[in-house]
Design goal:
By secondary structure, the protein is an alpha+beta fold. The chain has eight helices and 20 strands. α4 packs across α5.
């Protein structure tokens, strides 16, 4: 373990924003984390896969890269398996591990960027599945008293792209591992229309979890830019939840507006559709802009400043508010 000074974080965030951290260290165990914290009096930034961050300035503290690894079978029976997974594991590699072992439940979340530790923090979700449905526990290091605490699913207070780690306990914990309950019996979720259509185009009528994963990967690759080629953080904005009155007001003017009824009677609107209707899709400003295939994605074509992309997001939010009276919320963390 080596603490480095004045390190560029460009390769540690998928937007590819070139900012500098005063200090940087990678930790592979809880003991290493304790050693770093005991000798530190600087602000702390915890880095995972860097897929949900937009840096707008240098970080005048110590950036700690979470490299805690490992996948352990806690218990299993004929029907299900409990896996304890290190927070530093790459999310998609964990999905592939589960598919290889025929553990069902997260195949719809294939190719989501980032590490396992971010999955409960963001309550990642895609194509009809949210990770909260398979998480049983989150283990985290308390940055105040250096103890290890275990949060049950209920204690995590999961919401839409949110959890206690993004709200009341934001910045207070370093997630060390996540325990997942997965099925050993094949249970396919193809309720999301795009998956059914893709499986049909693949001529597959009785899909396996691997087939579903492949379909999701194909869909994502067709819509979303590869961060290795174009800097981005995936979906920049959350899909807004609106009342029935708000939804009906929009439908009156735009009968084709995508909307999805929620269990509580509210409606989820498609943020990408709203942004596209405001004319942002494919708009480029110098070396940054809105992706030409998915308006939810803001991109860095190379050399852009995070402050420029943040300003663009402000403009997008304002235009959607003006046209639809809906205030979009960023899914990405701004630093």
């Amino acid at each position: 373990m080596e603490i480095k000074k004045n390190i560029s974080l460009k390769s540690y965030n998928t937007f590819g924003i070139d900012v500098v951290a005063y200090a940087f260290v990678e930790v592979s165990s809880i003991d290493e984390l304790k050693d770093v914290l005991l000798d530190n009096n600087q602000p702390i930034l915890i880095l995972g896969g860097g897929s949900n961050l937009l840096f707008t300035k240098d970080f005048e503290g110590i950036a700690i890269k979470n490299n805690l690894k490992g996948i352990t079978v806690v218990s299993e029976n004929e029907d299900e398996v409990y896996l304890k997974v290190g927070a530093g594991e790459v999310w998609h590699e964990f999905v592939l591990f589960c598919i290889e072992n025929n553990y069902a439940g997260i195949e719809n979340l294939s190719l989501i960027p980032g590490n396992v530790g971010a999955s409960p923090m963001q309550n990642i979700g895609a194509y009809g599945v949210e990770v909260k449905d398979v998480i049983t526990a989150v283990e985290a290091f308390d940055l105040k008293d250096y103890s290890i605490k275990t949060f049950s699913n209920q204690m995590c207070d999961f919401g839409y792209r949110s959890s206690i780690f993004k709200t009341s306990e934001k910045g207070n914990y370093f997630i060390t591992s996540v325990t997942f309950k997965l099925s050993k019996q094949t249970r396919i979720n193809t309720s999301y229309g795009a998956i059914s259509g893709e499986l049909e185009s693949m001529n597959i009528s009785n899909p396996t979890i691997k087939d579903v994963s492949t379909a999701v990967i194909n869909i994502r690759l067709s819509k979303l830019p590869d961060p290795k080629k174009i800097g981005n953080s995936g979906s920049f904005f959350k899909n807004p939840i609106v009342s029935k009155i708000q939804k009906n007001k929009i439908i009156q003017n735009y009968p084709d507006a995508p909307n999805y009824l929620q269990p509580d009677g509210t409606f989820k609107m498609a943020a990408g559709w709203l942004i596209e209707k405001c004319g942002w899709k494919g708009k480029r400003i110098d070396n940054y802009g809105v992706h030409d295939l998915q308006a939810l994605v803001l991109v860095n074509y190379g050399g852009a400043k995070g402050s420029d992309i943040f300003k663009l997001s402000e403009q997008v939010i304002e235009s959607v508010k003006t046209q639809f009276e809906i205030v979009l919320e960023r899914e990405v963390n701004i630093l």
